[in-house]
Amino acid sequence: MVCLTVKPRINFPSSSPRFVAVALAMLSVNLACAAEMELTLQTRDPATGKIVLAKEKVDPARVGVIAVDVWNFHWCKTATVRVDAIVPRMNKALDAARALGMTVMLCPSDVVDNYVGYPQREAIFALPKVPVPVVMEVTCPPVPDAGGCACGRERCAVNYGWDGMHPALRIGDADLMPDTQADVYAICKQRGLTHLIYVGFHTQVCLLGKPMGLRAMKSAGLQCVLARDMTDAHPGYDPSRNFTPDLNTEQVVEHFEKHLSPTISFQDELAKLGKWDATWVVDPVRVTPWGTRMRPHLFEEPVTVTLTAPWQPGAEIRYTTDGTSPTAKSTLYTKPFVVTETTALRVSAFRNERAVCLESEGSFARMAPLPPLPDVFIGDLKPLRNVGFGHSYGGVMRYSGNTRPPQKDKSNLGQDLKINRQVYPRGMGVHAPCELLYEVKPEYKRFVALAGADENLVSISNGSNLAKYPSIVFKIFIDGKEAAASPVMRILCLAWRFNVAIPEGAKIISLVAMDAGDGSREDFANWVNAGFVN
Ligand SMILES: [Zn+2]
Question: How far is the CA of 212 from the centre of ligand 1 (A)?
Answer without folding.
Answer: 26
